[in-house]
Amino acid sequence: MKVPRTMRTFCPKCKTHTEFTVSIYKAGKRKGAKKGERRQARRKKGYGGQKFPEQKNQAKVTKKQALTLKCTECNYGLMRKGMRLKKLEIV
Ligand SMILES: [Zn+2]
Question: Which of 19, 16, 23, 8 is nearest to 79 (CA)?
């Protein structure tokens, strides 16, 4: 699916329709110092390994992708509902 680089939609902060820049959502980098990461490291330490099953074969062939929008006037950020697509590109 092709998505335009900018779109006009309602901004809750400006309370009117404004121009938004569109980008594809990407998950943030995992930080080793976070609580969950420390807990997982503690679980994996010593004798006996993984505490929950690793997913080996995926049932789905597509990835859920979401769009992030940013208001050009007030920098307010919005996210659009994730959709399952093989390919999502911004034109
Ligand atoms: Zn705005």
Answer: 23
Give the CATH number, domain containing residue 73.
Answer: 3.10.450.80
Span from the CA of 6 to the centroid of ligand 1 (angstroms): 14
Question: Range of 1's domain?
Answer: 1-26+62-84
21: closest CA among 72, 76, 79?
Answer: 72
pLDDT tens digit sequence for 5-27: 999 999 999 999 999 999 999 99
Instruction: Count structural domains, the chain.
Output: 1
pLDDT in tens, 36-81: 999 988 988 988 878 888 888 889 999 899 999 999 999 999 999 9
Distance 15 CA to ligand 1 centre (A): 7
**Inside any domain, residue 73:** yes
CA of 77 to the centre of ligand 1 (A): 8
